[in-house]
Amino acid sequence: MNSYQAAFGIGLSVAVLLILLYSLWPRRKKTSSVSPITTPDLASIAEKKSMEVFNDTFREELRNRGRLHFEKVINENALFLQQDLRLTTNELNTFMKDEIQKVLKDEFSKYEASITSARDIALESIKKTQEVIDQQRAQLEKQMNDQAAEEKQRLIDRFETNMADILNHYILDAIGGEIDLTDQLEYIFQNLEENKKAILEDVKNGS
Amino acid sequence: MDLKMPMTIATKQDVLRIQREVRDYEVAVVQNNVRKTTSESPLAVSTGLRDLVQLNQINLNEKNVPKKLIAQLDEALRKVILFHMSFATEPTDEVTQKLVAWFRKEINPTILLNIGVQPTISVGAVLRTQSKQYDFSLRKHLQNSQQDLVKVLRGE
What we know:
heterodimer, A: 207 residues, mainly alpha, 6 helices, 0% strand, B: 156 residues, alpha+beta, 2 domains, 4-stranded mixed beta sheet, 13% strand, elongated
């Protein structure tokens, strides 16, 4: 039984009860404009008889019965309403649960998709960054190697250019003041012999 | 007659010193004559002057000989060929005399040396003649051998 049926039952019971009360409710005697002389007082007789049948006790009895029936109906309908309400609540809970699960599932799916997308974007970004870093590292490495080679070559060239001075300096440091001019005479005479012709020519031209 | 220069007179400074010494000697002889003092032992002279008079057989005690010798030395200074040699340090007399001996034997007997000191030479010497300069230093030698040194360093 759903809520509409319960409401319909309650409404029908209330209508029956109202009709019963209306019919049993004591009414005032109508003051007839017709002259009581012309018609027999049947109505008053019927009323009198009915008053005899439906006396106060009987009415009270009917009221009690009506009240009891009304209470019974009310209780039954309340029970039905309670059951229906419980069922409705259960259904509502189930519905809410399903809806919430569905919504949560959808949201989780979206969230998961979003997370996956963000992760992919982050991975892509990291990958690109890594590639850029690798490129820059390779470029830097090449640049440093080139510079090192250039510096090395520059040092070698400089060393070769100034080799005479460098060797002279190191030889002097090595021998210090130990070498005597007497020891150098052989070297000097060797040079003089090698340049003897030029010196003779120079003297000849000079004189 | 030109003077013969002994090996002990190797530089222009030696000649100038000998000239001063001859003048001093002449003055000493005059003083001795004025004072009438006769000395058995000859006046002390330097090795250069002694070698010079011995080589040229000159008697300085004779009259006008010192003046003549001074004039001859002046003449010699005008005629000599003067070479300038620089070394890292001041050469000893022995070294100077050996060099002068070689120059006088191989190049010209009238050569005198003017000795200079140039610490940058370090090893060897630099000879400057009348119009040329000859660098006999180790630095120059290494510079001339640079290509060979580079080849050795490169293992070629």
